[in-house]
Amino acid sequence: MIGYLVISRQQMGTREIAVLHYTGCRAQTFENKGFRQYLKKELGVDVGN
User: Fold this and answer.
1) I need a surface site. Which of 3, 13, 45, 47 has the fewest CB within 10 A?
2) Domain map of the chain by residue range?
């Protein structure tokens, strides 16, 4: 869930969120390896393997 919030904040500039139960979200298609690489490149954050 936190990963989806980071994507939303960094890619779309989200400033506020509402928590709802939902399935089938496209954000679930992101892969961990690619997301880790993005965080390191764009934010300078190394979240490890």
Assistant:
1) 13
2) 2-43
